[in-house]
Amino acid sequence: MTSQSTQTATPAGVLTGIRVLDFTSMIAGSYCTRLLADLRAEVIKCEPPSGDYVRVPPPLRDGKSAYFAHLNCGKKSLCMDLKHPAARRTVEELVALSDVVVENFRPGVMRRLGLDYPGLKELKPDIIYCAITGYGQTGPDAGRPAYAPIIHADSGYDLANLSHQAGLDRPLRTGLYVADYFSGMTAMAGIQSALLHRERTGAGQVVDVALMDTMLSMLVYETLSAQFPVDGPVMLYSPSATRDGHVIVMPITQGNFEALADAVGHPEWKSDPRFAAYADRLVNWDALMAQLERWTAERSSAECEDLLTAAGCPCSRYRTVGEAMQSAQSRHRGVMAEVDDGAGPFLVTNAPLKLSAAPSAARPWVAECGAHNREVLCDLLGYGDDRVTDLINQDALIAADDR
What we know:
This protein is an alpha/beta fold. Helix content is 41%, strand content 14%. It is built from 19 helices and 13 strands. Strands 5-2-1-6-7-8 form a six-stranded parallel beta sheet. A three-stranded antiparallel beta sheet has the order 9-10-11, with helices on one face. A two-stranded antiparallel sheet has the order 3-4. The two termini are 18 Å apart.
């Protein structure tokens, strides 16, 4: 971890001066606050005595999880037992000096700790309180435990994907967490909207983000077709085999289609009654793709991509994530940033947005659990060493070297 002087020397960002108390763990909440840290908010991650669970999963190097580092770089770490009254009193003091609180406990947990929005609002009337859960703060499903794959199944996402697969009789296995990351982005947008509202009105508020809501919001065509069933074929985009792999080709617009026909040496497709108009292509889409595959199968994936892209028809070979990370476009855009968690440097993605006048990139340091205990309590709250030691002796505050 870099020194405090190095941390404070970074350029000002759009959220410089905003202090965030982060009570999140796992993915969605931690990703939200990581994005806020990329925009230069001061994020104080309040971890339980055992640390965030994501400090445990692989990939591990020297006992440090790169997964945790990716989600939490640039945050300060305070390690406290929120079940202890002295820890809760310290949190209340921090809330009074903060702008945003983010948590992703199940509904009711923060209330039982005495740290829910009504209580914190009394301490800081303009506090922005963001709660991220599977199903939201109210309603018949509010108390259900959920992780992203549960939401993928419950939202219809998995069955919608299955409906596009030929020859399968059960939903696909998954190891991806779309609902978590999209919900983290949604929460970040909600927090910034609430901050803008506070700037205009002086009022704080609750930002209630549910993974279920965010997944449904992604399924635009599916939510519409559930109301207005489509009678006829649906245009699906399948891989086309090449000599060394596969490409995906998407001649959606009329211009795309005509560019494709010319590029593959079949200008007659443009007058073929099966393909000439969009409505006809929709009915005969599989036939068009079968003819296209005869052309792609004779060429490499790179050749197909280069020729069709140059002609103006969207096309891509299928790349691994590692290849995409190292592509010329990713390097040009600065998609990846180097961080060091104490086990050596590695790459993480930057925030997926760029601002022309302010930084939006990952900070390069990762805090050990409890590394900022004394800095936060002494420098920010004015505690003396004796008071910090007393909190440690009470097991309300867990020293970094005690874990």
